[in-house]
Records
---
Amino acid sequence: MAHHLDTRLLHIGSAPFDPASGTAPVSLPAVRTSTLRFESLNALEKTIARRMDGERAITYGRSGLDTHRALEDVFMQLEGGTYCVLAPSGMAAINIAFLGLLQTGDHVLVADCVYGPVRNLDRALLKGLGIEVSYFAPGQDDVAALIQPNTKVIYVESPGSLLFEMIDLPALAEIAHENGVLLVADNTWGSGYIYRPLALGADVSVVAGTKYVAGHSDLMLGAVIAKDEKVAARLHSAQYAMGNSISADDAWLALRGVRTMSVRMPQHARNALEVCAFLATRPEVLRIFHPAWHKDPGHALWQRDCTGSNGMLSIELACTPEAAKPFVDALTLFGIGFSWGGFESLVQWVDPGALAGHAYWTGKGHAVIRLHIGLESAQDLIEDLAQALGHIK
Ligand SMILES: *Cc1c(COP(=O)(O)O)cnc(C)c1O
């Protein structure tokens, strides 16, 4: 009988028993090495042959050893995929997806709500390589009409990075596949635990493991997960060419972090909903962006496609971005900083420039504040927000 994901996440990568003592450590050790020694040339040849047969047989340390294989298994279980390529950061994973699936002369359609540094990847690398990028507004633009003869990939992030708008992935996957285009989704928000793009029709899922998978703000990690062998071969080939590698200690920390995902994620989600209920009572807050919140326009899609939520939310304040700065500075439990997915609460003053070119954003002139609701007591977080809101000029 197949076990529930919560159970599988705890048992992936159990260390094998030592045949002599009949014992094994509960926690798989971090296997650190730069290379492998082979008993004989015959053993080396056998390993290469196994790899040719599609096994994850390793001949060199850059690909990592048992700790890394166990972490790949974690991502495959989370995302429901059959292939996984690890990367040293979420951004490195995004690079593998773009450079593995696109070549000079190709075109990629990118959702306008994606993680900001993707636009920098476009400017810094893709332009120079002759890979054409254009942006579309999910839920507004007629995507089928935007597909060109050279379009190879549609790249999205659902929910969106700053305002958490839900994208209808099954509908988009249908359009993509009717046109022979691959659908790639950044699933850092869902991290496979509360949202699974591959099951909704996407071909590739990209995850910043830095966030909820690791869960403790103590490492950088990325993963690219796929279900088709040919697609996976292109991702592997890009990864191999780029020479990325993840330290065994970081892989080990991520394995350790993911063991508690089943208790962390629902608690982040409960705390965030309590905070939403408080924020909704405040006149300074014009709008809450959080798909699990009943008033969010994406709520119906969230109910249909997600199995849970997390600690991410944004608010639109009835003041200018400048006037919101004292509010951010007055918070005591929220660290001012980027990133999210750790145990702690964080606040980001969203630069208005980051919302330009983002069709879902209609509150021009107003402040947007992004909050990561951590595992502190929700009551304490609410009291902190209440006092800080009093500082808006
Ligand atoms: C943080 C983040 C990334 C990048 O991850 P890093 O590990 O910081 O490089 C990519 N996508 C999304 C949605 C993110 O939030």
---
Amino acid sequence: MGLISSLIFAVLLGALTGNAAPLIQKRGIGADLLARFKLMEQYASAAYCANNYNSPGDQVECASGNCPLVQDADSATVAEYSREETATDVTGFVAVDHTNKLIIVSFRGSTSIDAWRTNFEFDTTATDICSGCTAHHGFWNSWLDARDRVIPAVKQASTTFPSYQITVTGHSLGAAIATLGAAQLRNSGYTAALYTFGSPRIGGTKISSYISNQSGGNYRVTHWNDPVPKLPLLTMGYVHTSPEYYINKPNKKDVLSGDIQIYEGAINLRGNTAWLLIDIEAHRWYFGSVYTCDAKKGKRGGLEIRGVEGGVDIVATF
Ligand SMILES: *[C@@H]1O[C@H](CO)[C@@H](O)[C@H](O)[C@H]1NC(C)=O
């Protein structure tokens, strides 16, 4: 399993045609929400560490040292899975955190080039999230392979700890699966907050609008010039859930409350989308380093993605 070591984007400038929907911009978030973002980003990172998806019942820990807030909390996983027998290879855990009174559902991003190839086939498929709602078929199939592990574990944990808040998180591919998982948990009657980091677009207007309208809290966090939230492209019919919490800070810098800008709208050409020059390193750094646990120098595949966004031709080579 090789990790993608590099991603080169060549951006050919075209005319920027602004057809953006009306949007509302706010600068800055409260200290409590910032603290919650940092904690949830570390729970998303923890899903890359094998000890958190191999053997349920233990404290959530990251040997790579990038989840100190998680390790400070008194937690235990109640379900861990890595569905290597399925094509999607979906991996993650459900944990209870007694310090923060949370039930956490966390999904790992992809670590293999094969998974990324699956990610970046852009066909959509029907879902049972809502009527007429289609989503990316790879993301949806990943959630289908996870849900018989996730939903019973959430059900049991919320029966045992009814006052704990259900939170769903993930980074990258894991963020896309988290979005679909949170939507389905809400449809099943649970109140679930969703925190995603570097999520690709998950589907078309209908499902994105449906999820944006759900209550429980939708926190879609993007960072600087991370390429992944720019995919699949708007011109392929994909849009984002709203709002976007955009971290306006370069890599490896401490993020302060005022560094986060909030943009609303399924199509918002500000925030992360405004970047023309993009850098995979910004995908690997959110409030700290994400997914270092299984990091290995990977090989570059021959995958190429082309498209036009905001009047700009984008060519991505993995
Ligand atoms: C989401 O809410 C908006 C505003 O109330 C509404 O116009 C839209 O139809 C809703 N979308 C879905 C899919 O329910």
